[in-house]
């Protein structure tokens, strides 16, 4: 299977640079896998496609202000760090630029010494492990020094940082937003609940496994990066009950899909886990029945996942249709519902 099978040409003006004025006013493309039809709606219409037998699974992770601009303590060279994952107390995995300047023992300082990162291990692909030195509470330090880690294709300034969080973001730990959830408003979620639809939160902290590009030609040679997910006892019980009651499991976003499919083996299990699950065409879905997702980057693992959920040909047709109808793409773009 070749990575180029998941490529497409996207006019640059369709890359959304800012969120739609109102979250649920974004457009919604509805794909029906049974007859391969395509409908054009708005996201607030999603409620019409859900009924009391639906169970909506959301990812309640919260994005850290994880992008930090600092200087090397000895040479004052500029260093950019993106915190990815806490490995143990105050030890973090991070993407570093320029990585070649950061070796074991390198000290990078931020905000006149408010935060200092000491490199303790060197990994491939620009990844470093750092010991963090600071006073007080880390999230408060990051809120002072860090910025939202917007993807590199968003070049316009985001005035309201909360627009890169879902309205239900709760558990801090992500270095990117679970963007399919950005379309929900509190009012829409309330209407969904009033319709008798259960909403169940899982937590997957979004990192390299989700947003790292595929750099190999052969899909099977791509190395997925580990991401951490959490299912509480209460959530696990609700998910198992939903499966027992033959509910339609509607995953909000590819991160929710990967959490559910990683954990389910006939039933769900509570705990904190790491997953490297890589879903591409040929994968047999165990538990997810429907999917709400955004329009993804060409040749990405996310394109591969949705091509597995529908078919490669159907997704190509849908994306071509989206381009013709000038849908907005990527993190701040429009939405797709695959049923």
From TrEMBL:
InterPro entries: QueA (IPR003699), QueA_dom1 (IPR042118), QueA_dom2 (IPR042119), QueA_sf (IPR036100). Pathway: tRNA modification; tRNA-queuosine biosynthesis. It is found in: Cytoplasm. It is an enzyme of class 2 (transferase). It catalyses: 7-aminomethyl-7-carbaguanosine(34) in tRNA + S-adenosyl-L-methionine = epoxyqueuosine(34) in tRNA + adenine + L-methionine + 2 H(+). GO terms for biological process: tRNA queuosine(34) biosynthetic process. GO terms for cellular component: cytoplasm. This is S-adenosylmethionine:tRNA ribosyltransferase-isomerase. It comes from Alteracholeplasma palmae (strain ATCC 49389 / J233).
């Amino acid at each position: 299977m070749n990575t180029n099978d998941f490529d497409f040409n996207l006019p640059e003006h369709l890359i959304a640079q800012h969120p739609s004025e109102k979250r649920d006013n974004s457009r919604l493309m509805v794909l029906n896998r049974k007859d391969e039809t395509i409908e054009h709606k708005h996201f607030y219409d999603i409620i019409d496609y859900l009924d009391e037998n639906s169970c909506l699974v959301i990812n309640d992770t919260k994005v850290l202000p994880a992008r930090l601009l600092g200087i090397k303590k000895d040479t004052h060279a500029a260093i950019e760090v993106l915190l990815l994952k806490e490995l143990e107390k105050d030890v973090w995995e991070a993407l570093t630029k320029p990585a070649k300047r950061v070796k074991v023992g390198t000290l990078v300082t931020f905000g006149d010494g408010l935060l200092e990162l000491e490199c303790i291990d060197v990994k491939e692909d620009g990844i470093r492990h750092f010991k963090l030195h600071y006073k007080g509470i880390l999230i408060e330090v990051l809120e002072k020094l860090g910025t939202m880690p917007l993807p590199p294709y968003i070049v316009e300034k985001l005035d309201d940082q909360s627009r890169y969080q879902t309205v239900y973001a709760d558990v801090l730990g992500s270095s990117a937003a679970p963007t399919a959830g950005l379309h929900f408003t509190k009012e829409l979620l309330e209407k969904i609940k009033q319709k008798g639809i259960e909403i169940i939160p899982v937590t997957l902290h979004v990192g390299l496994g989700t947003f790292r590009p595929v750099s190999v030609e052969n899909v099977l040679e791509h190395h997925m990066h580990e991401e951490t997910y959490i299912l509480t006892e209460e959530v696990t019980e609700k998910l198992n009950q939903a499966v027992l009651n033959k509910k339609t499991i509607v995953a909000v976003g590819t991160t929710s899909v990967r959490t559910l499919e990683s954990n389910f083996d006939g039933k769900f299990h509570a705990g904190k886990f790491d997953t490297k699950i890589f879903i591409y065409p040929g994968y047999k879905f165990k538990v997810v029945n429907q999917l709400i997702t955004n329009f993804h980057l060409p040749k990405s693992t996310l394109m591969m996942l949705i091509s597995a959920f529908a078919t490669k040909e159907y997704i190509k047709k849908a994306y071509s249709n989206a381009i013709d109808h000038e849908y907005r793409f990527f993190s701040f773009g429009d939405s797709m519902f695959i049923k």
